[in-house]
């Protein structure tokens, strides 16, 4: 608290503690300011300073303030009002006082919260996808090749096994696919067959243009043109560099969350991870729509009825539903809604109708 004083109103007297800088001892001290001179009295130590010698820390609520003095000396005090008056006298605390007003203004705090949330939302919804696509397009093909090779090696050692399709069947499909295996965006398109009961009927595109078809998907098809439609869709992922974009996007999303939380360990917190995962999956839905558009245009150009894509998608939907859907009808409906939210693909019914309506 300020000492009672007969000094003129313009004088400032502040009680606190003094640290000399030469050791860690703390001594009671009084700081007085008058006529552009600041005097600090700490018993056996008396300093006469000019306002230019004193650096005042900003005010943060009612936390203690620190006045940094020459030769590493520090004056500490709880008298925030006295320090503000001292800063006003020396005209060196205007910025700090303005900052304190901004920090304690409820209206401005609410505006700042809204602006922060809006900026964060814009960054995730538009900024990250745009930046990811720009970076993916700028990366050399050699990077995509390295990522594709590494990914294939990992899949072969975990989820995939050698194909059990006969050599004749594989050769027949390779010949059927041949007209569609032209290089896309500098990447050669290669088709590989693998068995994977764990993954089931599926196909995937690696960043280097390698397309993987599972035996289960081949056996599910009733017409080879259905597999051609799937190939056109997966080629769309390669054409749009979705593999590289997804990798860059995941990295940017992780980096933004770490920047906002300031702690890598926060990423293990479900309240942080779940929104990030949902956002990443929504990006993937956009990629799937782009790949569908590419497939639809390709099939039309080659004179193949898009209904083939709709047919195998309907069969895939039934296959996955029989494998995963809960028994109760009410639970099934809720499960479908939850899967639609989490799925990396757009709602299957929407995709099927799109190809049915574009004969």
TrEMBL record:
InterPro entries: DUF7092, Mito/Outer_Membr_Metalloprot, Peptidase_M48
GO terms of molecular function: metal ion binding; metalloendopeptidase activity
Residue span, DUF7092 domain: 13-86
Lineage: Bacteria, Pseudomonadati, Pseudomonadota, Gammaproteobacteria, Pseudomonadales
Name by which UniProt lists this protein: M48 family metallopeptidase
Annotated Gene Ontology cellular component terms: membrane
GO biological process: proteolysis involved in protein catabolic process
Keywords: Hydrolase, Membrane, Metal-binding, Metalloprotease, Protease, Transmembrane, Transmembrane helix, Zinc
Domain Peptidase M48: 170-356
């Amino acid at each position: 608290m300020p000492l009672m004083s007969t000094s003129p109103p313009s004088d400032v007297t502040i009680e606190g503690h003094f640290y000399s800088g030469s050791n860690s001892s703390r001594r009671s001290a009084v700081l007085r300011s008058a006529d552009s001179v600041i005097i600090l009295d700490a018993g056996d130590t008396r300093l006469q300073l000019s306002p230019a010698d004193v650096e005042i820390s900003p005010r943060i609520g009612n936390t203690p303030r620190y006045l940094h003095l020459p030769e590493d000396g520090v004056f500490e005090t709880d008298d925030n009002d006295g320090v503000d008056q001292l800063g006003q006298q020396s005209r060196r605390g205007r910025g700090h006082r303005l900052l304190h007003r901004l920090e304690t203004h409820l209206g401005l705090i609410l505006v700042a919260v809204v602006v922060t949330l809006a900026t964060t939302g814009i960054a995730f919804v538009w900024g990250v996808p745009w930046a990811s696509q720009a970076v993916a397009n700028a990366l050399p093909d050699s990077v995509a090749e390295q990522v594709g090779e590494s990914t294939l090696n990992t899949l072969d050692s975990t989820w995939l096994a050698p194909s059990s399709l006969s050599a004749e069947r594989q050769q027949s499909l390779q010949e059927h696919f041949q007209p569609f295996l032209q290089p896309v965006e500098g990447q050669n398109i290669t088709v590989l067959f693998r068995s994977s009961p764990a993954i089931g009927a599926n196909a995937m595109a690696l960043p280097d243009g390698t397309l993987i078809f599972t035996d289960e998907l081949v056996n599910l098809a009733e017409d080879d043109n259905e597999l051609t439609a799937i190939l056109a869709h997966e080629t769309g992922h390669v054409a749009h560099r979705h593999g590289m974009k997804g990798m860059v996007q995941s990295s940017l999303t992780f980096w933004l969350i770490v920047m906002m939380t300031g702690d890598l360990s926060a990423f293990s917190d479900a309240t942080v991870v779940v929104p990030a995962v949902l956002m990443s999956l929504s990006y993937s839905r956009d990629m799937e729509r782009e790949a569908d558009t590419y497939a639809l245009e390709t099939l039309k150009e080659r004179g193949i009825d898009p209904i083939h894509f709709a047919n195998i998608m309907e069969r895939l939907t039934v296959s996955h539903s029989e494998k995963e859907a809960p028994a109760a009808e009410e639970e099934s409906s809720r499960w479908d809604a939850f899967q639609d939210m989490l799925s990396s693909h757009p709602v299957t019914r929407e995709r099927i109708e799109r190809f049915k309506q574009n004969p």
